[in-house]
Amino acid sequence: MQVAGEKIVVGVTGSASALGLDDIKRPSKQDSKPHVYPKDGCSACSATTAWDYISSTPSLSAVAGLIKAIGLDKALMGPFTGTLALPTNEAVAAYVAQIKADTAPYPDVFNNFLTKLLNYHFILRSAPAWQLDTVTLSTRYRNPWTAGPHTVTFVVDPSVSKRAPGDWQWSRKSMHNRPMPRVFAVTHIVDEQGNNVTFASKDNFVLGGGVIHSINAVLNANDIYPSHTASANSIPEKEALLDLITQVSAALNISMLELLEDRPGTILSPTSEAFAKLQAELSITPTPQQLYDVLAYHFCPSPDNSVKGLLYFPFTKNKKYNPCKTLLATNKPTAGLPGLLFSNTPTGLTTPQDLTVTYLNGLTGGQGTSNIVLTGITTPLAVTHLVDTVMVPPLGALAPAPAPAPAPVP
């Protein structure tokens, strides 16, 4: 897209298929394969609770502080039957270094981010680092849109095996009388962003038969990112928005990306195809200020800077903040701009609901609807939804020129 006085190009890169939307919209299944794991009270398990182990392990002091900050420590003070894959202090420090936002003024919003991030490290069943095969495991972090859990994959080395310990058991009661099988060493974990994460230590069993592994990097779900830049690097369809923000900021000598990082709110990110469609519809060359207004129409700051002002699915549960007031309406209070209305409509029992945003369309003067094609992308202070339309505000500046009058009949 070319801007008056400046040449600003919005790259049209990627496609819906690059996002893996088909996979995202297909709910994940709960663990279905039989597996083996320690029995409750097994001899290999310690009398130490999960929290006692975490809080007394120096290499896990950073993640222990995060767990305590969100109140998850209380759930780990008794018998524990799941698995925690916890990043070391060095891994936490490396992840924190990627966070661009100033989170200190907004602890409840940041805790929402931390809760989602840490729940992705909480596997629902006991999963020792010896498995029957490479296996995908459900975590405590769920996707409410698809109604399925986010997952991690334990990858085994088939060349390294041993007989499963005698105090382990099959997960299915019908198989409890079977002899213990051979199990294979798990070498690493693959997260939803395709990262291979190695172990710092394995199989620290705790009271209840649960297990704790220390890992050398933070696990990344496919909708949690430390910054907007990181999410754009992983989701090609967000690159066009980020490029436009960067170039408009340079033209106006501002830092809009920093504003979006540092202010709690809800962001709508048009796809590359949406930007291309708008470019074809416009008959004028927009100025940087006009494009800034368009960008500001896609951001709803949290009215009270609280986590409740972030619009997550299901939108119908957040009527106090929905419709949401855009940054543009805040900047131009006399324009009388209506809010953006987020809606979700059930489509069936096995498919995600249809998600839409209703807005006042400046190109037509009427009501417009933009479809949300990917929802709930979480960064430390914001939630982003990917939409299929660039929403032009009703300010008239970007309205297409009227069609020419028909030529007179000779």
Question: How would you describe the overall organization of this protein?
Answer:
InterPro entries: Adhesion/Biosynth-related, FAS1_dom_sf, FAS1_domain. This is FAS1 domain-containing protein. This protein has 410 residues and is α+β, with helices and mostly antiparallel strands. It has 2 domains: 50-162 and 181-215, FAS1 domain (Roll), CATH 2.30.180.10; 228-394, FAS1 domain (Roll), CATH 2.30.180. 23% of the residues lie in helices and 25% in strands. The chain is built from 11 helices and 16 strands. The protein has helices at residues 21-25, 50-55, 61-69, 89-96, 107-119, 228-234, 239-252, 256-262, 272-281, 288-296, 327-331; strands at residues 36-38, 83-87, 122-123, 130-131, 135-143, 148-163, 168-170, 182-190, 196-205, 211-215, 265-270, 299-301, 341-345, 354-360, 367-379, 382-387. The strands form 3 sheets. Strands 2, 3, 4, 5, 6, 8, 9 and 10 form an 8-stranded mixed β-sheet that branches. A 6-stranded mixed β-sheet has the order 12-11-16-15-14-13. The protein has a two-stranded antiparallel ribbon with strand order 1-7. A hairpin with an 8-residue loop joins β13 (341-345) and β14. α7 (239-252) crosses α10. It starts with 20 loop residues before the first helix and ends in a 23-residue tail after the last strand. Mean pLDDT is 86; it is low at 1-30 and 397-403.
